[in-house]
Specification:
The structure holds 2 protein chains of 2 kinds. Chain A is of the alpha/beta class. Helix content of chain A is 21%, strand content 22%. Chain A has a 5-stranded mixed sheet. Chain A has a two-stranded antiparallel sheet with strand order 2-3. The chains are: A alpha/beta, B alpha+beta.
């Protein structure tokens, strides 16, 4: 919005959870954090990665919604489920390739990050980006981030046969224009999958 | 061209044609408010027209000798666009009505034998005594004019006589 974009740099994340705390303090989603940290490899490392909604150009969550409750506005922001429509089926939770939507049982609805629509629509930065001490979450102009960072912002992901273009950028290695995820290799049934240390401890070879 | 089901369930909020309950309620409220204002305006206009009407001076439309008993005369009053009919029911009884039928404004014709005013368009009948509807589609009485006689002249004035 207004030439500003959202950039996520997981390598800068220090796991302080300031973004979660800041998000939790917002009244528009009643004290529930719409951002969370993923551990990259929990058994081996403390490295975390912040997860906000990537605001896909063709959002899978909205495509799978049987109640037509998830809408994308003219700025490309994918909003939380519409209250009168959401039936709490959790299809979106399962469909999102980034694991963003949350099913909230107390209200029987899906809630998700809407890039602080109440703030960004009046020219403010999203709350998480304003508090992030290491600027792993950055909200600003593309030319600025190009000047101050060596990483390359990408906004295209390949999940198996599905290409996902997003509004939010992920800082990635220089000269990368797309991230490929071989989903099958992440699944336990996969043969060429390398088991991590936790699994080895539990299941052996 | 996206699939049919995708057109029916568009993701961009701008293409979503469903009306929310709040929008629909707002539409209903504003429409009824507009109707209320319109009705009040029309009623006020009519009341003001009745209240502030100037008493028109009487106009002579015919001589007494001009019309025989059971005869009639057409005239226009108060403007050229308002056809009226003057009837002589008895030696000293004159009545005048707006000639437009209260159903669909066809001109009514005088039937002296039955003392009725008949509208030929849809078979509407009015009493020649007081203009009340007798048969057919008209429900409202003919607008009656006040008739006086003076100096062998029949005078008609604007004020409508309330029919019983």
């Amino acid at each position: 919005m207004n030439g500003y974009d959202f950039f996520i740099d997981p390598s800068r994340c220090i796991g302080c959870k300031a973004c979660m705390q800041a998000c939790m303090e917002c009244d528009t989603h009643r004290g529930r954090s719409m951002i969370h940290l993923e551990f990259v490899d929990r058994a081996m490392s403390t490295q975390t990665s912040p997860v906000v909604c990537m605001h896909c150009e063709d959002p899978a969550c909205a495509r799978v919604c049987p109640a037509d409750a998830i809408k994308q506005d003219e700025n490309g922001i994918v909003h939380s489920s519409l209250k009168p429509r959401c039936i709490g089926c959790s299809n979106c939770v399962l469909a999102c390739p980034f694991g963003v939507p949350q099913y909230v049982a107390q209200i029987d609805q899906m809630m998700k990050c809407d890039m602080c629509f109440d703030r960004t629509s009046i020219g403010k930065k999203p709350m998480c980006a304003t508090v992030c001490p290491s600027q792993a979450l950055y909200y600003g102009r593309a030319e600025d981030i190009e000047r101050i960072r060596v990483e390359n912002p990408i906004h295209q992901f390949q999940f198996g046969n599905q290409t996902v273009k997003t509004k939010v950028h992920l800082m990635s290695a220089p000269a990368t224009d797309q991230l490929d995820f071989d989903i099958v290799s992440f699944m336990p049934e996969s043969e060429d999958r390398v088991p991590d240390i936790t699994e080895l401890a539990i299941w052996g070879n | 061209m996206p699939a049919r089901w995708k057109q029916d369930f568009p993701v961009p909020s701008g293409e979503d044609s469903y009306v929310t309950r709040r929008e629909f309620t707002k539409f209903l409220g504003l429409t009824s408010l507009a109707f209320l204002i319109g009705t009040c305006a029309a009623a006020t206009r009519k009341l003001a027209k009745q209240f502030f009407r100037r008493d028109e001076t009487s106009v002579a439309v015919a001589g007494i000798q001009e019309i025989p008993v059971g005869g009639h005369k057409l005239f226009r009053y108060p403007t050229e666009n308002d056809p009226c009919i003057l009837l002589r029911l008895a030696e000293d009884k004159f009545v005048a009505f707006d000639q437009r039928c209260t159903h669909l404004s066809c001109p009514v014709l005088f039937d002296a034998a039955k003392k009725q005013l008949a509208c030929p368009c849809h078979e509407g009948f009015f009493s020649a005594e007081d203009g009340r509807p007798l048969a057919g589609p008209p429900k409202r009485p003919l607008a009656q004019l006040l008739v006086t006689t003076q100096n062998a002249q029949v005078l008609v004035s604007q004020r409508e006589v309330q029919s019983a």
